[in-house]
Amino acid sequence: MARAAVSRRLSWQVARLAEVRVETPSARTLVLDVPGWPGNLAGQHTDVRLTAEDGYTAQRSYSLGSSGDGERIELTVQRVEDGEVSPYLTDVFAVGDPVEVRGPIGGWFVWRPSDPAPVLLVAGGSGIVPLMAMIRARRAAGAKTPFRLLYSVRSPAELYYADELRGAALSGVEVSYVYTRSAPDGAARAPGRIGVADVNTGGWPASFEPACFVCGPTGFVEAVSDMLLALGHDPRRVKTERFGPTG
Checking CA distances to 100, which of 55, 112, 173, 230 falls within 20 to 30 Å? Predict the structure, then answer.
């Protein structure tokens, strides 16, 4: 039975675009209907495959911004100008169009509402996507688990899920922002890269033994992981997910 379930997850399925939401000038949330989708945990990802008329295929992995049961999933895709897949998904892909997906994939970088430990989420840019799935899973479960999100982004215009994060703050998720290039008027912190002081202030004390999830570009993830270890966090409780130039 377990082998059959894995086989289904690794088989390509046809999904259709049901809805598009604009997140930033270059990022779109794609809501896909996937008949037979088995559901997924917060933090998992899926593969997406495009096939050209001449038979050429290109595929990429994208974090899932959604979790739970049901046959509808969400991906948020950042357009990479010289990419093979993201320009199509953000600029051409239209409601009703098909695309192939397979998954869910991954079982380590996940959060379950049954885990009572405090949670620290640290996102760099589009690394917010799987962490947003965790925030949504907390809300859907009615959990009171202490959550803190530290979100590093170039400017306010590049924030994903801006309205939803404001709502999350009202439901008990503590949200802190680090702007690296330009900050909004009245920001207490000048623009600049994330540092130990940001992680220390926006995170939990190591003595609380929080579950830490860090997602973003490779350099960002490595730097934040080093900061967490320097602050005394247990390396076994620091989980990371990183992506390269193609996202």
Answer: 112
Widest CA span in the chain: 57
| Beta-bridge partners for 98 | 16
Query: What distance in Å separates the CA atoms of residue 104 and residue 101, rounded to the nearest whole number?
Result: 9
What residues contact 214, with CB distance under 8 A and at least 6 apart?
122, 123, 127, 221, 224, 225, 228, 238, 239, 240, 241
pLDDT at 5: 46
Paired tokens of 136: 């949504």
- Phi, psi dihedrals of residue 84, rounded to the nearest 5°: -90, -30
Per-residue pLDDT reduced to its tens digit, 190-235? 999 999 999 999 999 999 999 999 999 999 999 999 999 999 999 9
Token pair belonging to 52: 């050209």
Q: Cα–Cα distance between 44 and 61 in angstroms, integer?
A: 10
How much is the pLDDT for 88? 96
Residue 9 — very low, low, confident or very high, per pLDDT cuts 50/70/90? Answer: low
> Helix 128-141 crosses helix 162-170 at what angle (to 10 degrees)?
40
Q: Is the peptide bond before 104 cis (omega within 30 degrees of 0)?
A: yes
- Residue tagged 């620091």 (tokens): 238
Sheet hosting strand 27-33, strand order edge to edge: 57-63, 45-51, 98-105, 13-24, 27-33, 72-78
